[in-house]
Amino acid sequence: MTTRERPTLEAVARRAGVSRATVSRVVNGSTTVAAGIRDAVNRAVDELGYVPNQAARSLVTQRTDSIALILPETANRVFSDDLFFPAIIRGVGMELEAADKQLVLMMTGSTAGHHRVERYAVAGHVDGVLFASIHGADPLPGLLADRGIPVVCSGRPPAAVPYVDVDHAGGVAAAVRHLVASGRRRIATIAGPQDMVAGLERLAGYRDTLAEAGLPALVANGDFTRESGISAMRELLERDPSLDAVFAASDLMAHGALQTLRAAGRRVPSDVAVIGFDDFEISRYSDPPLTTVRQPIAEAGRVMAQLMLRLIGGDEEVPESVVLPTELVLRESA
Fold it and tell me: Any idea where the HTH lacI-type domain is (predicted)?
């Protein structure tokens, strides 16, 4: 049995009755070919089942039709029970799929990972790079942008590149004001990591809103994980057994707080009200269901991809930033 040979550019040219160069221009998207000739080439492509060689096509178009999404985390963190990463990947992936672009997922949870991504992007394997979950003054977005590579970030980055974020401070303010209005006066927080914009802005929103109400702050630090919520809630109860509410800067930390409060014999919400931030689906099914600040994570991924597509398309009117609204979702925990 012989394997059917892959149709060639020359075979398409013979079928369409045109030159090889004309076929090359058509399959690479040239608009200079007459409509009748273009239709004849496309019919020949369909009849023969011709698939363009992507490597050769990239040499002509200087495009790979691939976009990298960089997650500056370890694989263990990305594939843990943190639902932020699946949501952002889903949003980016849906938008790129609709535009017939390939998503390349990469993780940079180490110095070696940073170097690997830098080499990959600078070598021209992707048309642009998206970043999510940036920690500290990560130099990689600025470095790639300086090399002429289109870059879009999730969250305000240290470099001057376009970014998409959510209204962290506004969402936290709505949560804390709700607690104050319901009569809570000892309102603690489990803050997120302070080397990330989300962690910084949610803590600032908490402090500012409590100061506005003339109430003291009580802060324990976490890292957005369930385990950190468990330990931070224990710390808060030890420091102030009379606390009557807690705002956790992520739903997972809020779930950890609920676990600790239950083990300590504290009733939620009658003894201690709890509010999270994310509105992951699991929060509807916690015990009790979790009041939380909804942030549109998948939508942020979609908007990031939209900005990237505009950048690689040569759009000169791409906004410097897009900030999406948040919403307080009331359930039984507060």
Answer: 7-61
Q: Tokens 């940073």 — which residue? A: 114
Blockwise average pLDDT, block size 10, the chain, 334 residues? 61 87 75 83 83 52 78 71 82 92 83 79 87 79 86 85 93 98 97 91 96 96 94 97 97 96 96 96 92 95 94 87 96 96
* Residue finishing a domain among 18, 34, 61: 61
Note the pTM of the prediction, 2 decimals.
Answer: 0.77
Pair (189, 217) in one structural domain: yes
Long-range CB contacts for residues 200-206, cutoff 8 Å, separation at least 24: 201/168, 201/169, 201/172, 202/168, 202/169, 202/171, 202/172, 202/249, 202/277, 203/249, 204/169, 205/168, 205/169, 205/170, 205/171, 205/172, 205/173, 205/176, 206/172, 206/176, 206/247
